[in-house]
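Office hours follow-up: a student asked to see two folded examples consecutively, so here they are.
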Amino acid sequence: MKSHTVRTYKSAEKLAREDQLAWKIASVAVDDVPLDADVVEMIGNRIIDNAAVAAASLARHPVASARAQAQAHPYMPGATVFGLPAAARVSPEWAAWANGVAVRELDFHDTFLAADYSHPGDNIPPILAVAQHCGLSGQQLAKGIATGYEIQVDLVKGICLHEHKIDHIAHLGPSAAAGIGTALGLPTEVIYQAVQQALHVTTTTRQSRKGEISSWKAYAPAFAGKMAVEAVDRVMRGEGAPSPAWEGEDGFIAYLLSGPKAEYAVPLPERGEAKRAIMDTYTKEHSAEYQSQALIDLARRMGPKIGDLSRVKDIVIHTSHHTHYVIGTGANDPQKMDPAASRETLDHSIMYIFAVALEDGGWHHERSYAPERANRPGTIALWHKISTVEDPAWTRRYHSRDPREKAFGGRVVVTLQDGSVIEDELAVADAHPLGARPFARPDYVRKFRTLADGIVAAAEQDRFISCVERLEELRPDELAGLTFTVDAAKIGPAAARGIFDWIGGRGRTA
């Protein structure tokens, strides 16, 4: 890996294209290096992981709405949409949209945390949609996904967005555009322009993850993927982009990040170096914000030691800056302590999550968020006894570049009514590559079968898994197999009609 310094340049300095971050990203995207076997295996794992959480979310309202919007844009050859028959193709940007929402709705797929935050699996829906529409092979798809992961992870390592309240999809748009460029074998110039366009149109604020968190939290990454598809299409037609997007005098760094005098260091693979960033990422065993994964496992471990939870006086979670200020009491969000809060808000409340995990000895992607669960008097009482504090040691470990030291957990101190103290700590989740039970292919398959149970027929589950197992061997006509079809009754009620259903002054009939 080579570290690249990125800073603002005045227009008069005329920064050469080859010295711009977007060009360097495009150069990585066009570098056609072979994929390592473990990388291909992990790409397959994450395709399975995405499908698992999509299956569990099919009937949820935001997913139904996005799917209905996609169905209003049928197109051939087009791309597939989770839950629909493989022959029901839609325009690729709308497939990326619908599938992106399905993958993101439950906040239950993979993660990478460094200087900023990300869910790199969000790269897969737009790259897969374009691959299906354009008749690419499984190998071309895999190479595109490897690039998407590489660029997003490298941007997340080098550029912090959240301190300026910019949402992390500003790293996803460029990475997805780069991945699409790799899959299609586009030239450097085209990818360079598309990466910049994607950055320009996917820069939004973190209010989507603050206060009364809405369904837009799931839609935001899908929007970035859709914008990436459209950016690549425009540039392929000869259109350009605001340039230089990151380094410009009135650009991203100068006015949205740390200002004209700031410097960032972004690591990128050197020419001929394998794209392995996906191996630095990790999935979730539990359907909750990643910083809660280790703490759920810790609650599971501490519950039996505490015993009767009514004896608890207070619980203090000593953790990183991110956990304290984003999902802890440091966020100063009263909604995080509100039993009437949305699922999306409860997912970002470690106080609620830790209380429920202590009581239940684990976590469930639906039951743990149910309104009746959040409104139990005992849960509310325990929930309001929990607080977080930032511990510099955990913050340092959170930002460590050494994977053996990097940690996302914390130390929990439980004080009982009699003054006795029970404490324990856990650095990484059990499912983390360095955890007690690292996830491997059988775990991903089990997660898929668990979440798809009762939704996707067993034979269809088998067919999908078999297709993923042959990822690099898939012919263009077989790429449509990387989805699943369900009985129409499993998709849930039809979404309300919108503009795309409007015909002749009235809503389109079903």
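And the second, which I mentioned at the end of office hours:
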Amino acid sequence: MSIISVPAMTQAVQAYSYAGPSTLTGGRLGLSTSGGTALSGAPAHPRFFSGLLTQAAPAAAGLLAVADVALTRYHQPRPGWTRDPVVTCDGDRLRFESFSACGGVYARLDVAAIDGEVLDRGTTNVDVNGPLRESLARVGGRDPLHLGVGPDELTVTTLDGAVVEKKVPLPVRWLRGFAEVQVIAAGFDLRAELKGPRAVRFLRSLPRRAGATVWAVPSGGDLRLAADPGPGAVGLSGTGRLATLSPLLRFAKALRVYAPAAGDGFQASAWELELPGMRYTLAVSPQPWRGFSGEGAVLDHLSTDEAAGDADVVGMLLNFEPAVELGLLADRSGLPVGRVRAALTQLGTAGRVGYDLHDASHFHRELPYDREQVAQLNPRLTAARALAGSGAVRLDGGLAEVTTSGGVRRVRIAEGECTCAWWFDHRGSRGPCKHVLAARIAARARTDALI
């Protein structure tokens, strides 16, 4: 697998190369792999696991659901490219991830119901093709399913001539969204938890129209639908984006809903189904037309001069562990916990860590794009650094004036308020504008100069 950059970073093109197609025959699921990163290095076709899926039916349905999200464009549906799911083996579980073509839905299946040999730890892409999807849809019953993540030596030998090559565009908006959703999720709280029958009943009560909008209001140990927000309500715009949960309801043991603790209007949320031996999580953006790429959640962390250096230190300590412990990283790196958290944000934008809501912790994985492109994936941050570096910022206590080609913008630094059109349109709901970022960068530089 390789990444080919395209001028002006409008998109990259990812070239997948599989030793052969993924197959499911005779009770054996063989997932072909392409590139990525492993503890052993960067093999062309990494081999991570060989053993049993002890809960075959929900695992097959969950993997199919992850693949469906990768295939779907929820906003303004039209044919397009599918980006193959990503799998991470951390020695404790297998995590399958995907991101919708429209950039507004993130899916992950965390499978702990495995029994076999962990051959390596790391992250890779896996081939999910049409025939495999049809086979996964037919898996049922209680029999375990043998799983191989990566080809064994015999498979590599006998598949000569069966190499599968794909070239898939990766738009900048898609890349940024895959990174941003992890940082946004880290700010969610558990807002509701429903046990089996109640979870199924609530999800089946959702309107089937793709663009329907509802509020889910906690009521005791249940959720009720409302047309207007109430205390503790979680907004869901585009109920059709939860469609991949439906085939999993026959296995559902519980539903957990996560969202920011407070805020006005629709916000991003996450919907987690507890299944036998695994969890399936969907994170959805505030509205179907609004992908995760423009949320700006990472910008304040990335704007600090020390973040990049700290990220290099913390990144070297990651070892594909199932849960990243902040305190342990702080001890090993010699950094305060706050700087470790900011470093993890930087690593998140580079695709090097994800966030597990159930465990309330980051986990190490390596998405297949170049971490050196982080600044280019955040044009607001690039513009802010240019403004601060050019002397366009005049500080006056907690206020600032930022001179731009469009006039002078007045900023309240701590509050993150600005007189620009971006702030008036979004009121901070999509991260700070470039003028606020520039003022904060200049204020930090002045403070550092006085120390």
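Two things to take away from it. The chain has three domains: 2-170, 179-293, 378-451. The first strand starts at residue 2 and ends at 5.
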